[in-house]
Amino acid sequence: MTGRNRDVVVSGLGVISPIGLDVAELSRSLHHNRSGIRLWESPLLAKKLPAGWIDRDFSGEFTKLDLPYLDRCSQIAILAARQAARDAGLEQFADYGQRAGLYYGSVGGGVKTEHDWVRQFYAEQKQTAKPYTIMACMLNAAPAHISIRHQILGPVMTHSSACTSSGSAIGDAYRAIRDGYLDVALAGGAEAALLPTFIALWGGLRALADADPVDVSRSSRPFSTKRTGLVLGEGAVFLLLESRESAQQRGASCYCALSGYGIASDGYHIGSPKAEGQVAALRDALQDAALRPDQIDYVNAHATATPGGDPIEARALREVLGNAPVSSTKAIHGHLLGAASALELAAAILAVNQSFLPATAHLDEIDPACALNHVANTPVLEHPVNHALSFSAGFGGTNVALIVSKENSLPAKVL
Amino acid sequence: MTNELDSPHIQTLVKQFLQERFDISPDRITDDTSIRDLGLDSMMMLEVMLELEDRLGVKLQDLSMPGNPTLRDVVALVERNRG
User: Fold this and answer.
1) Considering CB atoms only, which of A64, A131, A135 is closest to B23?
2) Between the CA of residue A55 and those of A38, A51, A194, B8, what are the distances in Å?
3) Distance from A69 to chain B by nearest Cα, in Å?
4) Helix (H, G, I), strand (E, B) or coil at A55
């Protein structure tokens, strides 16, 4: 392990999600367990499905000169990154030169642009795409646009490790600051892939949840005996990370410290998780944060609500973290894939900053195979959280755990 | 076809497309306005040329233009290509 040179704090948050279009709205939704899961449908698919989709067209936020290059994924990433930078009191990073970085995670990138082009090719016999299409759908389009707009002149990196994409992006940004390579970084992820072609891809896996026949907003049920699969979502979340010295010099307030990062891979199967890899990532994060398991006050689990995945994760969490309170906020926002880790870390950050335990909604019947100290149905308010851990596990076997801790030497951010 | 390729018609088509696609008012465009002045980059200019091909039903063989072309340069290119 490299030497811990500097502490890292979270001084800005930006959120475009099914349960809030900024950090304040995200906090309110978590406090009240307000679900953003709604019925999604397409004329091309016979089945209507639940999804954490954002019923808003963001193209009005951009000029027509911008839009040819901006897939919806890039649009929401740009908006969330701008929120995070402004929240931290920063707008432009040119003065940092190469000591400002951007670390981004996504699974699909500009999926709509790419799939539209494939349709034009096969169905309309187009021989060439529009000039911008290649740049609008490439995986690193969003971070490139953010770096251009905010003049982030150091590393601009794209991570893609399925559901841990934004988690490993945040973790690597944290390490770059901690180890002295950077002073400040925007880190997060984005996903905007709620398209019939993409949904049908997941349909092939038979892993998607059915719509709850009574109340579609209750269709995502992590850890429940009634879970039927995962609910896909879309959104973008960014953190502004900086060294504590940098925040002190700027007179900035912060939400918390980012105190630990663990990453480990299963080396096992392309689509099936393994508890041993998850255990390794969790232990790695604890060691990095120099914390004992009993010091973790809240765990935001990955828990996608698939029949097979939740019990394996529960076993790993039990083994490493014992009786720590656990919830999966995917019950209200769904699975944001490349933005999942970032959104769930934001929930853990708010747990520390706002002193509460977010709950797993719709958890009336806990699956005995998922036995944990569940925060079920109702958030626990006015509950001090000194250390919170967010865990993610991705297809391909990459596992990421991030730990955030109360920051005592800087003023706390007030929402 | 020759009538459709006269300069005023080409100018009108370009202005129409720039307004539809990029919200650029025709009032801002003179013969000497450069694409950079309008906020367009080289790829947007390429789309303009491809759109002109579609709307005029011609294939522009020679797409060489100055680095920061004006509307006059665009019209000249189309006229040069009409064979």
Assistant:
1) A64
2) 10, 11, 11, 44
3) 10
4) coil
- Interface contact A131, partner B, CB < 8 A: yes
Is A65 in contact with B50 (Cβ distance < 8 A)? no
Alpha carbon A377 to chain centroid distance? 21
SS3 A309: helix
Residue A254 structure tokens: 């912060």
Nearest to A65 among B22, B46, B50 (CB): B22
User: Model ipTM?
Assistant: 0.83
Q: Which of B39, B46, B50 sits opposite A65 (nearest CB)?
A: B39
Round to whole Å and give the CA distance between A257 and A244: 8
Kindly state whether A65 is in contact with chain B, defined as any CB-CB distance less than 8 angstroms. Answer: yes
Taking each helix axis as running N to C, give the angle between helix B42-56 and helix B7-22, from 0 to 180 degrees, rounded to the nearest 10.
Answer: 120
Using the CB atoms, write b or e for A63-86: b if 16+ within 10 Å.
eebbbbbbbbbbbbbbbbbbbbbe
Tokens of A126: 């187009």
Instruction: Specify the DSSP element, H or E, that contains A14.
Output: strand A8-16
A158: left (phi over 0), alpha (psi -120 to 50) or beta: beta
**Class of residue A151 by CB neighbours under 10 A (exposed 0-12, middle 13-18, buried 19+):** middle
Residues with Cβ within 8 Å of residue B30, at least 6 apart in sequence: B71
Pick from B44, B45, B60, B63 the residue to mutate for testing the A interface (most A CBs within 10 Å).
Answer: B44
- What residues form DSSP beta bridges with A412? A254
pLDDT of residue B4: 62
Of A73, A145, A159, A163, the active-site residue reads A163
The sign one gets for the Cα dihedral A325, A331, A333, A337 is: positive
DSSP element (H, E) containing A166: helix A165-178
Given this model, what pLDDT does residue A407 score? 97
Contact at CB, A68 and B46, closer than 8 angstroms: no
3-state secondary structure of A263: strand
Give how far B79 is from chain A: nearest CA, Å: 23
Whether A137 is a known active-site residue: answer no
H helix intervals, A292-400: 309-321, 330-333, 340-354
Question: C-alpha B10: how far from its chain's center?
Answer: 7
Render pLDDT for A171-225 as a digit per residue (tens, 0 to 9): 999 999 999 999 999 999 999 999 999 999 999 999 999 999 999 999 999 999 9
